[in-house]
Amino acid sequence: MGVNEIDESESLESEIFDPIEGPVLNEPLAPEAIEVPRLARHEITLDDGHRVGVTVAGKGVPLVVVHGFSVEGFLYAQSLSRLVKMGFRVIAIDTAGHGATQGLPLSGQSLNDYADLLGRVIDELGIDRFVVAGHSMGGQLITRMAATRPERVIGVVLIDAIVGDTWDMMVQLFRVAPPLLGVLSGLLLVDSLTVMPTFSDPVQATKLFRLLVPTVAGHMIQPWRLLGPMWTILRSRSSRYALDALLENNVPVFVLHGSRDLGVPHRTARDTARRTEGVLVTIEGGGHSWILRDPETLPAVIAELLAAELGESIRSSLRSAGLRRKYPTIQDVERVCYMPDARIFSLSPSGQPSKVVGRHRRPKYTWHTER
Q1: What's this model's pTM, rounded to 2 decimal places?
Q2: How far is CA 18 from CA 218, 225, 363, in A?
């Protein structure tokens, strides 16, 4: 990239090329060895003593990723490493009671408390402007967190998130008819059984199994940790207030949802996209956890969005932060996206990228986008 500067008399609306370099969507298979970024796992302590697990990799625009119920951030490692290659510094945060993060006290058992913890972690790491993505329960949490920090959020990516009018009505039904919760649990169990592509892609199944082992082992040792988040979801307030706040503050929203999500119906994604005037991306044939089944699909969808609304949102945010370079470098981007001497810089992984052989590049799912 060059470093030529735009004349100061030019408007902020002058063209700034996107600093994010996405993959070629039709890139052929890569049987040869290719570089894979390292992901560093850390356990940090906030000012109030709360212990939090974070996974960090890459440089560039901050992309905060929040996992779904009963899993942890590192489980998404395969997709995260691909997003790093697109110019993001990925920060995956374990939510309260998951992974390496300490649970919340009994006095703090609302989804807003979970979302507030995420916000405090972002502040502690010195992240000023960021894109945020959340899967399932993580989508609910980032929606609430972003609604309290709209001026700092570049874009919100909701992946099969438990938000929207349909989901809110489902929660109300669970309260008056608890047996329905058992039905939902059964549907999600069926969905989970299809996540592992044992026969269609045994190599990917082996990789995913290795990532799942530590998570499952943790639940077997401390199964009670999941009771708090589960009870909190059942007691949750309607998500429409947070979604309306995103719309009122012009926060771009991107709703990605599997067409065959058994637990969280696709209709709730339509509700969310309509309420936020966001972009709806339907993953054809995708279940609730398609993001884990195929690590190539999410990066491919993000690459497409970077060439459209998400890329424009990033450029707009950089302009509003005062970035004037026509061809900004990674250092330029980080200067306006992070606080000086941000703690996140000390958490970056050390060492050279590793190499793997036979990694495929084509996403296994197809999708269509509605704007």
Answers
A1: 0.86
A2: 41, 42, 23
